[in-house]
């Protein structure tokens, strides 16, 4: 930027005092200061906008690199999964190829029937209703048992003291 020393500013002030006059000089100086402030703010805004655009470009580049890396990892995982799946299918087919078809079908029917003496568990809908743990309900003060109004009042009533 232009370098103004004290001698140059004094010379400009003297010329302005002679040309503008002492009556209008304070108003003109205020206006010039106001315009210089606006110019400085404008330059600062432009610099900030340029910095933001540069940072945005860097972030976009970083985003593309991360997306490419994620795609590479995904492709590698799919490839490894497919290879493992094919190896498992091949091993499974080799292991099950020696089984007798009749024994396989009879074993499938025998496992489908329930074992003697087996009863399915009872489904208690009250237990299934809430998945919130009991310790959380107790800490938050959630009522877990139904209680009548009179029982609730009796529960929280202060104990009676005998008369002296």
UniProtKB/TrEMBL annotation:
GO BP annotation list? protein transport by the Tat complex
Predominant subcellular localization, coarse grouping: membrane
Q: How does it sit in the membrane?
A: Single-pass membrane protein
Database matches in Gene3D superfamilies: 1.20.5.3310
Q: Which UniProt keywords apply?
A: Cell inner membrane, Cell membrane, Membrane, Protein transport, Translocation, Transmembrane, Transmembrane helix, Transport
Pfam families in the cross-refs: TatA_B_E
Q: Where is this region: Disordered?
A: 139-164
UniProt keyword GTP-binding present = no
A cellular component term from Gene Ontology for this protein is: TAT protein transport complex
Look up the domain of life of the source: Bacteria
Here the segments flagged for biased composition (Basic residues) are 154-164
The compartments listed are: Cell membrane; Membrane
Q: Which GO terms describe its molecular function?
A: protein transmembrane transporter activity
Do you know which InterPro entries this protein is assigned to?
TatA/B/E, TatB
Asked if the record carries the keyword Cell inner membrane, the reply is yes
The family this protein is said to belong to: Belongs to the TatB family.
Provide the assembly information: The Tat system comprises two distinct complexes: a TatABC complex, containing multiple copies of TatA, TatB and TatC subunits, and a separate TatA complex, containing only TatA subunits. Substrates initially bind to the TatABC complex, which probably triggers association of the separate TatA complex to form the active translocon.
- Summarize the protein's role: Part of the twin-arginine translocation (Tat) system that transports large folded proteins containing a characteristic twin-arginine motif in their signal peptide across membranes. Together with TatC, TatB is part of a receptor directly interacting with Tat signal peptides. TatB may form an oligomeric binding site that transiently accommodates folded Tat precursor proteins before their translocation.
PANTHER family per UniProt:
SEC-INDEPENDENT PROTEIN TRANSLOCASE PROTEIN TATA, CHLOROPLASTIC
Which protein is depicted?
Answer: Sec-independent protein translocase protein TatB
Q: Which organism is it from?
A: Roseateles asaccharophilus
């Amino acid at each position: 930027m232009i370098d103004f020393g004290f001698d140059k500013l004094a010379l400009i002030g003297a010329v302005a005092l002679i040309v503008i006059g002492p009556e209008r000089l304070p108003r003109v100086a205020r206006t010039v200061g106001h315009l210089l402030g606006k110019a400085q703010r404008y330059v600062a805004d432009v610099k900030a906008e340029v910095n933001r655009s540069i940072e945005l470009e860097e972030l976009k580049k970083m985003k593309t690199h991360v997306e490419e890396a994620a795609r590479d990892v995904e492709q590698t995982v799919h490839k490894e999964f497919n290879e493992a799946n094919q190896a498992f299918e091949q091993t499974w087919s080799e292991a099950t190829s020696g089984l007798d078809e009749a024994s396989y079908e009879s074993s499938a029917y025998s496992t489908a029937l329930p074992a003697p003496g087996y009863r399915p568990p009872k489904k208690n809908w009250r237990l299934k209703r809430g998945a919130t743990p009991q310790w959380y309900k107790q800490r938050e003060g959630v009522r877990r048992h139904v209680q009548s109004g009179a029982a609730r009042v009796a529960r929280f009533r202060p104990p009676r003291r005998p008369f002296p």
